[in-house]
Please model this.
Amino acid sequence: MKDLVIIGWGAAGFAALIKANQLGFKPTVIGYGPIGGTCVNVGCIPSKRALRIGELYSVASRVLGERTYPDFGEAFKDVKDLVESLRKRKYEDVLASYDAEVIEGKARFVSPRAVKVNGEIIEARKFIIATGSSPKVLEIKGLREAGFWTNSEALYPDREVDSLAIIGGRAQALEFAQMYRRLGVDVAVLQRSKVLLPDWEPEVSLLAERVLSDEGVYVFTNVEVREVRRSANSKVIVTNRGEIEAEEILLATGRKPNVDLNLEAAGVELGPNGGVKVNDDLSTTNPNVYAAGDVLGEPMLESLAGYEGSIAAENALTGSRKSTNRRLAPQAIFTQPNIARVGSAEGYEVGSLESRVIWLSELPKASILGDERGLVKMTVERETKRIVSVQMVAENAGDVIAEAALAIRHGLTIDDIIEVVHPFPTVAESLRLAALSFYVDVSRLSCCV
Amino acid sequence: MGGLRLRLDKDVLKCEYCGMPLTEHNVYTREIGGKTHYFCCEHCADAYEAKSR
Model:
């Protein structure tokens, strides 16, 4: 019998493997598909590289005073090269340096303590399910017949397209909209809700729409897609507000947990969000089976998956029962400017919180960068002034939000932020300005107050 | 090959009480009956909520 079987070789699976080795255990890792899972192959790495290429050309366009675009094919070749390089360095080479039994294949549970893979039964004392997620495909009349892209095809396009209609209006849709627009493609975003990013602060949602619109992305909200059909050289999307015709359709309507593992045989239940149901220590309804990462459902974040993979391995192998808190995971959307958040007002009584918004036009660094679009919205407990959540739109907000994550994790107040000298001029200073805004009108402050 | 052909009405987000167009500078939301509603200010939200009771 094995000590530990890890199912999945993405971010969570790798973190679990590394932690198991650090604790002196040799795990068995079972996986299929490209090693490294979503992030390095069809997620963060290729999408952020493609966005970076667009950023460089956007800056060049501003300098030259005329719109210039990268070569479509060259841009995606660059993306592919980086993926291959990082997959080798961060996954294949790393895997070779650790002590693990690696099996390529699809595992399915056959009992509470055994899985079957490639016809072989493998028994173990503990399991970690880290099988990640896949694109969620909506049931729309005619969509499958007409054909569509998911993030996978959009990151490795088989041809250059002139126009793209994106169905969805959350993180993935926003990133692909800017990415393709900056490759010179005509882009439209069709969002079912009244705003983009409907579960974010409304100021962020509306600014996100403006950021995309400023670049020439057509954003349509409150749109219900009813049917898709092919025409000669394009695809027609029929909605409640009219029709749109584009060369290709990108379905960016979220991801679903990969739970096709015959979990019933293991006594592992699913939660209401369709992901594996876990306790705070990441154990499932079978105490010998743990789960980590995207397979738990939203939020699906690379950084969270890695963190949970490590905790799951430690808890499974040592019984340490370390707990996790998914609500404290910062999230970032890597458009330019970035959109980022951490924390949540959920669970607080109405009236127990207060919020302030500061605009980046008050931040000298934003003026230096030449883009004053942006904001920071900070929410605190009215009584204690403890920071509860921060949402921001700003250059490099994906980096800056880490300070807010630390503050929330440790129960810090706005006074703690104010008392820390922030480097000037930086975007990080915007958090201090947001904290100061609870006491003063920041538009009446000189630099570095 | 071709560009986008748009035959769609664009929805403009407006205050659900007074009809004022909303931007990131004036948007205000409130959960009413488990749904997020969009307003231009707290007063409109109060008025909307009072009317819908």
Observations:
- Chain B touches chain A through 21 residues (CB under 8 Å).
- The longest helix of chain B spans residues 42-52.
- Helices of chain B lie at 42-52.
